[in-house]
Design brief:
alpha+beta, Pnp Oxidase, Chain A, UbiD C-terminal domain-like, nine-stranded antiparallel beta sheet, five-stranded mixed beta sheet
Length: about 425
């Protein structure tokens, strides 16, 4: 029952019935994205969205301070912890009829290709290689799903199975705890076990490791997940999309593999997790796990790095801010180049001194306005960027870095805001 344990902050409950094929769900979730929304009757079932739509709610779920999230994630990646296997996981409480059309899965936007599972993570293992990752999944009919596979680890595992003429066994988890979702969105080495990263976060934040349970197909998944859909990525394909991605714009239609669902498990009284496409929760769960990678690479170039943030204005994907304390001239430029290495999809980064609050957009812009001139803007042409950036047209991108740090030895009296007692 992970979703029920994640109802932090202001909670709005919608009691009236909501249909799955109109955009009422999106309208309601969009009204106040800081508020958690619980739908008592979405297509006959319970659902909830905006669970982790702010850093504060995400930190509360992890049981850590807001400003410690990036270090918390990075520490878990560096020091994964074993999970504990339980014989009676919560997700196996109820075995449901396989009928995806009856689940509380909405269509979010008018031109979407269909109803989408947006907060589902796919867990798999093939030839000893494990993977847990986010994928958008479009409902085709009662037991088939079109899955978007980008060329990363699940894509590779599926192609390895496909080369042997095999389907790939998977389990789709919906309603997983925050640690699992963040680990699933973190870039890791091929074959690394994201559940062990989640377990490390659970251990540090809550004092106990992640519990996992076995599906009938042999795959181990988080024990307290609300919904688990066992299935197979088949060798068949179908058109998937359009779909609104993190930038709030429609991604185009592609031929993608079909998942065949064989079994559906739930906990008692399950709640289906809804992630609003292009919304704040999408930003948090997709972008926030990239920040530890930026922190790691910038620290390799500049020893004293205070914090890292991918900004909401840049969809928590394309624009970032890094605060450092300079040791020598050139640290700002080195930090720019290292930040782009840590998150290759980023197209703009601002480097500021460590007295600037990077979580305050006005303070960051103030630093750019008062501490730098245009000759300290670094432009990098013809770089590989994000396919989600509509301005790149799927080709190369220009990357821009702003070195808004002060020269070493600057008289800070000229650059600090006046204070009053």
């Amino acid at each position: 029952m992970s979703v029920k344990k994640s109802l932090f902050g202001n909670v709005t409950t919608i009691t009236e019935p909501i249909a799955s094929d109109v955009q009422d769900t999106t309208r309601i979730l969009s009204r106040d994205q800081d508020a958690t929304v619980v739908f008592e009757d979405l297509n006959g079932g319970k659902a909830a969205g905006n669970l982790f739509s702010t850093r504060e709610k995400t930190a509360a779920a992890l049981n850590i301070p807001r400003d410690a999230i990036v270090e918390h994630l990075l520490d878990a990646v560096n020091r994964p912890a074993e999970c504990v296997i339980v014989d009676d996981p919560e997700f196996r409480s109820v075995s449901r009829e396989v009928d995806l059309m009856s689940l509380p899965i909405p269509k979010y936007f008018p031109e979407d290709g269909g109803r989408y599972i947006t907060a589902g993570v796919i867990v798999t293992e093939f030839e000893g290689k494990k993977n847990v990752s986010f994928h958008r999944m479009m409902i085709v009919d009662k037991d088939r799903i079109a899955v978007r596979l980008v060329p990363r680890h699940l894509f590779t595992l599926f192609n390895n199975a496909k080369a042997q003429g095999k389907e790939l066994n998977i389990s789709i988890c919906v309603g997983a705890r925050a640690e699992v979702l963040l680990a699933a969105a973190t870039s890791m080495d091929f074959g690394a076990d994201e559940l062990e990263v989640a377990s490390a976060m659970c251990l540090k934040g809550h004092g106990k490791p992640l519990e996992i349970g076995r599906c009938d197909n042999g795959i181990l998944v988080p024990a307290d997940t609300d919904f688990v859909l066992e299935g197979r990525i088949t060798l068949d394909e179908i058109s998937e999309g359009p779909f609104v991605d993190i930038t709030g714009t429609y991604d185009f239609v592609r031929q993608q593999p079909i998942i065949k669902i064989d079994k559906i498990w739930t906990c008692q009284d399950p709640v289906f997790h809804l992630l609003l496409p292009g919304g704040n929760e999408h930003y948090m769960l997709m972008g926030l796990p990239r920040e530890p990678m930026i922190l790691k690479t910038v620290r390799q170039a500049v020893p004293r790095v205070k914090n890292v943030r991918l900004t909401e204005g840049g969809c928590c994907w394309l624009n970032g801010v890094v605060s450092i304390r300079k040791n020598k001239e050139g640290d700002g430029v080195n930090a720019i180049m290292a930040a782009f290495t840590g998150h290759p999809s980023m197209k703009q980064v601002i480097i500021v001194d460590d007295d600037i609050d990077i979580f305050d957009d006005r303070e960051v812009e103030w630093a750019v306005a008062t501490r730098m001139q245009g000759d300290r803007i670094l432009s990098i042409p013809n770089a590989a960027g994000s396919s989600l950036d509509p301005s790149s047209h799927g080709k190369t991108t220009w990357k821009v870095g702003f070195d808004a740090t002060l020269p070493v030895g600057t008289d800070m009296a000229l650059f600090k805001k006046a204070r009053f007692e």
